[in-house]
Batch of 4 targets.
Target 1
Amino acid sequence: MTASNNYRRVGIMGGTFDPIHFGHLVTAEAARWEFALEKVVFVPSGRPPHKKDYRVSDPEHRYQMTVLATASNPYFEVSRSEIDREGYSYTVDTVHEFRRFYGPEVQLFFITGADAILEILTWKDVDRLLKECHFIAATRPGFQLNRLGESRPMLPVEGRHRIHLIEVPALAISSTDIRWRVQNKKPIKYLLPEAVEDYIHRQGLYRPRDCGVYEKS
Ligand SMILES: Nc1ncnc2c1ncn2[C@@H]1O[C@H](COP(=O)(O)OP(=O)(O)OP(=O)(O)O)[C@@H](O)[C@H]1O
Ligand SMILES: O=C(O)c1ccc[n+]([C@@H]2O[C@H](COP(=O)([O-])O)[C@@H](O)[C@H]2O)c1
């Protein structure tokens, strides 16, 4: 990470980004704006802990695509933190690293889809995580807000007020669908930045042959 310690609120956008798409970018920008974040750092997952049974594209490809996708936004950065770390990429370790880097006075906001937040009780060290950072949960198409209300009482009391919801324009875009489209020779234009689309075609990602598509191993 390259930054000074002057920032008061920093966003962390974690994801597999296989590939990154406009759903991720719109969400990050909405969170930045609504929570007055000084910047949003995208953190491509090295080895996603919850996708152990699936094959994920090479981290370097996912990192490169994230760099290309975020290059035009001066408030966006990309971190190699999880890519370069050994073992599974647990968010609690990443947040801890950010905390060490930015110091105790900076508020950290982990940005994620509201569907992912529903699973947060299964995340590693959730109690510690909720002490270290806030969560911004973006609603995505098909998500019902009341389902989050149901799981809230199960969270540690002091952590409940640290989960904030935002609504983003309904973008029914997913990485799964994009990979499927490439495999089936369907257009992906306007679902993700042009530079990422070019990268996918140039590198031959998601074609049946080299199958960056998740597959049961
Ligand atoms: N269209 C979208 N709108 C809002 N949030 C999204 C959208 N797509 C993904 N997210 C959120 O962004 C984060 C990173 O997502 P991820 O990289 O897994 O993308 P994905 O499209 O959900 O991938 P996949 O289809 O492979 O599961 C997750 O918290 C996810 O909920
Ligand atoms: O730390 C965990 O236990 C954990 C469990 C599930 C998901 N996460 C993180 O949540 C983010 C969104 O995950 P995904 O699969 O939707 O891309 C990503 O940064 C993951 O590393 C983290």
Note: The first strand starts at residue 9 and ends at 15.
Target 2
Amino acid sequence: MGMLVEGQWQDRWYDTTRTGGRFERQDSAFRNWVTADGAPGPTGGGGFKVEPGRYHLYVSLACPWAHRTLILRKLKKLDGLIGLSVVAPLMAEHGWTFTEGSGVVPDTVNHARYLYEIYVKAKHDYSGRVTVPVLWDSERQTIVSNESAEIIRMFNGAFAAFTDVAYDFYPAALREEIDATNAFVYRAINNGVYRAGFATTQEAYEEAFATLFQALDTVEERLSRQRYLAGSRLTEADWRLFTTLVRFDAVYVGHFKCNLRRIADYPNLSNYLKELYQIPGVAETVDITHIKRHYYGSHTTINPTRIVPAGPALDFTSPHDRERLPAVDSFRPSSP
Ligand SMILES: N[C@@H](CCC(=O)N[C@@H](CS)C(=O)NCC(=O)O)C(=O)O
């Protein structure tokens, strides 16, 4: 675990001394957008036009933020247009690596051993954390974006000319609702589990813990009345919640001490999780082995023995009861 300081790799853990034991996530540094015509997106510079084979995605199967991008790439059928590399689950003294192992897909574009080499290639004096996901532009030899929330929007919208999946996960009519939901889910749940797990004071942990379970209770109640987070239509807000839910009972309950309740104890959340998991293409983006090995093996300040728990038994494939709630514009993956 470490970071780059003016292009040099340094092995160090998150510093929470200046924030009263609170974990604060750093803002992403590369914020450009791939667009249909290469015009600039909402942030960053232009010149990143959609072209098949031009862009490459670096992910960790363990990481919930990277997982969003993997799901959108899969559901929008962009696999053939955007290449993929998968880092090894363990994030240790060199950060993310491409060390061979089951599920690892080597870097065939930059031939890197360590993910930080890609950041240095994009910006020789880069300072900051080296995170996944990364969207790489092979033509300009730089990072387009390392912000998952924006990469999923690009995957949803910019590649329309090259995919037959027209389904819109960010429809104009629901944007306000989706944005509000995302903001709430991000703070209290997606990042909330990290704020609980990486807290270094009792107070910071308890604060994150209380916010997290209050939010899960709120979402549980919402999902008792409606099929999806933004109403009766599946949207990006659901995928953003999904990647935290699918990791919750396997790692956040134990490793991050988010143990008031498991997702399995919430009838609506657990059935909703199963529905999303069972959408064709999704299960193949979920790798519980990478997930468990990454968290329990990489955060040695939390788990010094690096022992990965053998349980719990998880079953996301059993029948769910979500069909009792109405759905509109159901997402159906088109034939391959
Ligand atoms: N804002 C980023 C956050 C990504 C992120 O924090 N990824 C984690 C893995 S789950 C990471 O790579 N951390 C490495 C580090 O902090 O050094 C996004 O959503 O894309």
Note: The longest strand covers residues 55-59.
Target 3
Amino acid sequence: MTRAAVFGSGNWGTAFGMVLADAGTEVTLWGRRADLAEAINVNRENPDYLPGITLPDGLSATTDPATALEGADFALLAVPSQTLRANLSGWAAQADSHTVFVSLMKGVELGTCMRMSEVIAECTGAGPDRIAVISGPNLAHEIARRMPAGTVVASAEQATAERLQKACHTPYVRPYTSNDVIGCELGGAVKNVIGLAAGMADGMGLGDNAKSTLITRGLAETTRLGVAVGADPYTFAGLAGLGDVVATCGSSLSRNHMFGVHLGRGLSVTQASELVRETAEGVKSCESVLELAERHGVDMPIARAVVGVVHDGHSPKEMLATLMARSAKSEALY
Ligand SMILES: NC(=O)c1ccc[n+]([C@@H]2O[C@H](COP(=O)([O-])OP(=O)(O)OC[C@H]3O[C@@H](n4cnc5c(N)ncnc54)[C@H](O)[C@@H]3O)[C@@H](O)[C@H]2O)c1
Ligand SMILES: O=P(O)(O)OC[C@H](O)CO
């Protein structure tokens, strides 16, 4: 039987643990809190993140990373992107030499501008055949209710992608394989930044044309960055690109979207953080995405405008004025 350790018992770690278990994979969920692990094991529920959802039998929880990793074919990582490096320094040595590390995260590390698969490679020493990424339009609360979705399982090694695809294929999750790890990761990380901008537009009541324009031009600048760092531009037309940006920008279940809505309604970053208490990756990753773009000489006006609001004290109205005042140009798709 395939075994998986899932690190992070928040929304996505728990929901994706359910997917794996429903696909017949034996899952051990790691979390920091003993009381939450006990609630999961005894009550078959994660009351903090997915209240009212009964967890499948093939899923148990622990606070001990070694127990989670014992015999694991896959170690799936669903912690905040900015803590991954510190987390892996405590866990990596306990993994078997064959364990495949899988990023479920959608962020870029501050300071280094590394994608999560790059952080994994550096911290674990795993080669490309032992690294994978899963990304797509996957709102945890819908998946946990077994509502249908597609997703992308990406690894440089096709055999790794196919093994992981099998380990998470259920009647309600349809995983597609890809070899474009860079494109899938950047699609996931940058859509959170676009989601913040679209949320601000919604919060300001700017209408569907404005939001659609942000989605489309946001995808263009995401693709521009992706191509500059080695991604396949077509990946951004797929589930990990277009698919995810549409789900994020359109859903009130998206934390990034809702964070932006609060800002657009006039709340401060501190007030929005208090309302959206869960991980909204774009709030931090907008800075690392923009820095990555600048390192590669790529223009990302929407990401720059989001950084202006979230970190430099600009108002969403100023963001709108800045974006609309840009000089006229032809519509390059990236
Ligand atoms: N929620 C979704 O719908 C969804 C879907 C796809 C991808 N993701 C991505 O998955 C990742 C996790 O998101 P989430 O929704 O599960 O977030 P969450 O806020 O629901 O859960 C985060 C988990 O990480 C834990 N955590 C926080 N700080 C930690 C630390 N320093 N060390 C170890 N653990 C720590 C928290 O206790 C919690 O269990 C993010 O990168 C997110 O973009 C989320
Ligand atoms: O809640 P968000 O904004 O982190 O989005 C969740 C997923 O990434 C959507 O695919």
Note: The chain has a mean pLDDT of 98.
Target 4
Amino acid sequence: MAQGFKLEDHANAISLSLPPPCVHSSSFVAVAANFIKRWGNLRSQHKSKRLPPGPPRLPVFGNLLQLGQQPHRDLASLCDKYGPLVYLRLGNVDAITTNDPEIIREILVRQDDVFASRPRTLAAVHLAYGCADVALAPLGPRWKRMRRICMEHLLTTKRLESFVSHRADEARHLVLGVWAQAQSGKPVNLREVLGAFSMNNVTRMLLGQAILRCRISGPTRGHGIHARDPRAVSAFGGDIPRRLLAILEMREVEKRVDDFHNKIIEEHRKSGGKETREEDKDMDFVDVLLSLPGENGKENMEDAEIKALIQDMIAAATDTSAVTNEWAMAEVIKHPRVLSKIQQELDSVVGPNRMVAESDLAQLNYLRCVVRETFRMHPAGPLLIPHESLRATTINGYHIPDKTRVFINTHGLGRNTKIWDDVEEFCPERHWLADGSRVEISHGADFKILPFSAGKRKCPGAPLGVTLVLMALARLFHCFDWTPPGGLSPEDIDTAEVYGMTMPKAKPLVAMARPRLAEHVYR
Ligand code: HEM
């Protein structure tokens, strides 16, 4: 593995060559000659370290000004032009991007140890309690400990199973809300409905309460923050010119979010936590975190650590699943052929006399293809969360400097014409396996779709994310027929996106719902 040229090397070279005090002039000449020789060697060594190809750079800005409102598309175009691995200079930051399965495998799996860190951005410092969380923390013991807490105490199969009745209740609210709207003959704002479904599911697990009852499904108990707050989103996205604007607003978001978290922790402490053991199914995540010991023998975790984890879970779990659901609904309503195939499958697996249950989801193979196709075309994390190299290395013979920021372009991967045919066609059938076996959503050995990433930083909430997505879609397609509103035809549904940490549809999806089951099933 090649070592990077560092300023320290240069400084060492100079200091090694400095003459000792009171040296004779001839020895000074010898030392100077030696210095020039070594300097020349270092320069040629640096030159010989070939960076990956990339576009020409401006002084100071580098390539920053070449990235516009849709950096994922700009980066994919650069890969078309310069090859599967592209080098960029963003201001004073080295960066690489790729949309190629083999290079992605190299970065996320073979060289996971090198690339599994995160850049310490202002957004990470201000919105994640000084990188005390999981998602934005650089690789190190602190990240490892917080990630282990997530995996061992919050996202275990057993704990997720303990919330199954809460999830069923939220699915019931979802259907009842849409049903009431359908009775009134008004179109349904699917962004609102699906956002509330995800947020309430997550906050019931985390905080023990549904904090965002959607207007049409019950009283609203807004808490003043939303994971899709554009400021939070662009600040997290943090690596494009829009970031500058976001930074100006970050302090306000930071304060609002912190007040909310303090209130939650205070309420949980006041109620004395649950007087039950950790495995008790009534404990929410905050109860669990309050019951865990801290670092270095401390009795409890620090408040900042608890707040950072709550923040991470809300941000990572809600928007990702809501955005995916809205895209899937948009594509399916745009393609009535797909809607009728989904409904045929639901009618045969579930039938017309009951609601879909979580235990049905494994058998809904066509719906699983629909979700996989949605992830291909509209991955919730179009550039993942930026990774950063911990040391210099090489990929395909190219030098990658220390602290290089890595943009894995999952949007470009799903639309890479070298690995997919008809990339702009929404075609779930392409994922159907010849032997009819179960279609996996969260992973795929071929690295052609990567909705939850891979390696050390892969999403620890993938099973929960997949359940939330499948459940909402299965219920909505089983219970209702869907058409575009007011005289629009299916092909009029637009699929323009807005770049952010997650990548929603530019315009909220609005559609007409018509109940398709007998009335008693909804009640
Ligand atoms: C459809 C739903 C979801 C999608 C598409 C999704 C996708 C992702 C992606 C792409 C990453 C970045 C991985 C990387 O940078 O390499 C990520 C990280 C993460 N996700 Fe998810 N996610 C979803 C749901 C969830 C849920 C439900 C939770 C938790 C309750 C969660 C918790 C996290 C955390 C904590 C990280 C940071 C991991 C780390 O940096 O070590 N996600 N997710």
Note: The longest strand covers residues 85-90.
